């Protein structure tokens, strides 16, 4: 971790775009959507123009009464302006608390309550359709990014407010609050400091530096409320890379954009990359110029890696996988190439720690050495670790053991030090083996699958919940051939992909899915699995 500490002055989110504009003022940002806070800006702007927009909204927030160290919950309709508003909030010394647009109103209200009377920055649509009326009593003041409301202050009404100097808070102080995935219940609020975010930035910047020598266009589809977007932006902005920001992962829209702009780097969630597999067959070759595919959050399926790498025509194209967590940042890294030992054949192998920056260990669950048949608890040490869960210090302390952070995953390490991720602790089905490994196998054997999630059924048996491309009914005979040699499972349950419960980073909420499976009246209507003639 010593390499994360040397000269760590904090990431300074409030002046991120301003400092990048000083180096590369004409560098551009291209969007696939309009900004709610500045629809007139259009979908193509220079970094200098965006820096000025952030300064403008920092002035409006100051005029609205936001002051250093205060918290501002941001929960608005999806868009890149969520990130830009976070920068503006930090610019006046306050702390943004970013809540996913996908969260339901009751959950948002609970998280606002935990934040202890923050400002709430939302929009008219959220107030009218999702948020309960109690948010007005839970918040110090409600601000609107767009629209108007009699009980709220519209930032549009504060246009022209006098600009204020940027406030630089000490790097050890909170600078950003994000939330965990919520796959196991109400999300936790993760508190980041300038130091911890800069510590996350360094390993990512270090590992990409030797891979990307020239100027590349980077396209990003990452949750606007996730800390990963902050570090990815910092790397790209300071290197002067043109940036393409996507709010929509629809493959057809993405293909149109990539065919036009020819990105050299793609950064996205694993599930987004799965959706983009079909771009490999597009005659326009929208992925032909990609030098580096970059994915974090979860291990990625081998089928997806092979499909995407096969669509690139760049010499030495790589797929980089970062395994980490909202609370700790990137912990280990692995790259895959089109051929040789780097070819992705084992999706459970997630890589090795960053030398001098992160460390990892696997601790026994039962006194016996961790192994493929007896996975242990995965624990990580990194200066990128959050400093607390807001309002839940005891819960945070339970996951720290002498500086080691319990990831909530189980796996093992090989003799060569490679970490293999087998399951989440809460998803482990004793005696079944790795559900994730079986899912990898099914994706490889059944190209028609859009999603497969293996969860424990009401009787304890492993139940595969599947979605297919275009919702085509799954052929039972094809399924039986695909599961040959795999651990015994119940018959598959087929649902439409859009009906599977997802987190802000498009992960499937497995516990909620299991609850829906057990509670038929509350479950989405399944697609019938029919015989195909």
UniProtKB/TrEMBL annotation:
Where in the numbering of this chain does the AMP-dependent synthetase/ligase domain appear?
A: 17-386
Give the matching PROSITE patterns.
AMP_BINDING
Check the record and name the SUPFAM superfamilies matching this protein: Acetyl-CoA synthetase-like
Q: Which InterPro entries match?
A: AMP-binding_CS, AMP-dep_synth/lig_dom, ANL_N_sf, ATP-dep_AMP-bd_enzyme
Organism domain of life: Bacteria
Q: Name one Pfam family in it.
A: AMP-binding
Write down the species: Streptomyces pharetrae CZA14
Q: Which residues cross the membrane?
A: none
* Name of the protein: Long-chain acyl-CoA synthetase
């Amino acid at each position: 971790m010593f390499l994360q500490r040397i000269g760590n002055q904090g990431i300074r989110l409030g002046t991120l775009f301003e400092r990048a504009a000083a180096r590369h003022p004409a560098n551009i940002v291209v969007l696939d959507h309009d900004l709610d806070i500045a629809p007139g800006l259009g979908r193509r702007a220079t970094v200098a123009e965006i820096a000025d927009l952030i300064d403008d909204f920092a002035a409006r927030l100051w005029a609205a009464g936001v002051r250093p160290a205060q918290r501002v919950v941001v929960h608005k309709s999806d868009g890149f302006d969520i990130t830009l508003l976070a920068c503006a909030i930090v610019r006046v010394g306050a702390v943004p608390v970013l809540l996913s647009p996908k969260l339901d109103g009751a959950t948002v209200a609970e998280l606002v309550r935990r934040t202890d009377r923050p400002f709430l920055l939302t929009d008219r649509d959220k107030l009218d359709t999702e948020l309960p009326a109690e948010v007005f009593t839970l918040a110090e003041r409600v601000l609107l990014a767009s629209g108007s409301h009699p009980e709220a202050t519209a930032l549009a009404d504060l246009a022209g407010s006098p600009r204020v100097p940027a406030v630089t808070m000490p790097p050890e102080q909170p600078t950003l609050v994000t939330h965990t995935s919520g796959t196991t219940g109400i999300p936790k609020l993760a508190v980041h400091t300038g130091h911890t975010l800069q510590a996350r930035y360094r390993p990512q910047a270090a590992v990409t530096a030797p891979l990307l020598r020239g100027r590349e266009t980077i396209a990003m589809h990452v949750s606007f409320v996730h800390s990963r977007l902050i570090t990815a932006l910092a790397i790209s902005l300071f290197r002067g890379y043109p940036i393409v920001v996507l709010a929509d992962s629809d493959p057809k829209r993405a293909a149109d954009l990539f065919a036009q702009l020819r990105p050299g780097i793609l950064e996205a969630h694993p599930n987004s990359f799965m959706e983009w597999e079909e771009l490999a067959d597009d005659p326009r070759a929208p992925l032909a110029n990609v030098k580096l595919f970059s994915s974090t959050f979860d291990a990625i399926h081998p089928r997806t890696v092979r499909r995407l790498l096969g669509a690139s025509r760049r010499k030495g194209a790589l797929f980089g996988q970062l395994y980490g967590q909202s609370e700790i940042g990137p912990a280990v890294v692995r790259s895959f190439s089109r051929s040789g030992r780097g070819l992705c054949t084992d999706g459970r192998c997630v890589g090795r720690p960053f030398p001098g920056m992160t460390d990892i260990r696997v601790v026994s669950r039962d006194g016996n050495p961790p192994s493929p048949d007896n996975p242990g608890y995965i624990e990580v040490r990194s200066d990128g670790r959050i400093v607390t869960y807001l309002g839940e210090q005891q819960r945070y302390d339970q996951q720290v053991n002498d500086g080691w952070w319990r990831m909530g995953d189980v796996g093992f390490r090989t003799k060569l030090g490679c970490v293999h991720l087998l399951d989440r602790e809460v998803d482990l089905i004793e005696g079944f083996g790795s559900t994730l490994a079986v899912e990898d196998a099914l994706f490889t054997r059944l190209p028609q699958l859009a999603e497969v999630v293996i969860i424990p059924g009401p009787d304890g048996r492993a139940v595969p919940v599947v979605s297919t491309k275009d919702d085509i009914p799954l052929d039972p005979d094809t399924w039986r051939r695909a599961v040959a040699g795999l651990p015994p499972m119940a018959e598959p349950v087929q649902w439409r992909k859009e009906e599977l419960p997802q987190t802000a980073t498009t992960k499937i909420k497995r516990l909620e899915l299991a609850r829906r499976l057990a509670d038929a009246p509350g479950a989405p209507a399944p697609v019938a699995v029919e015989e195909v003639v």
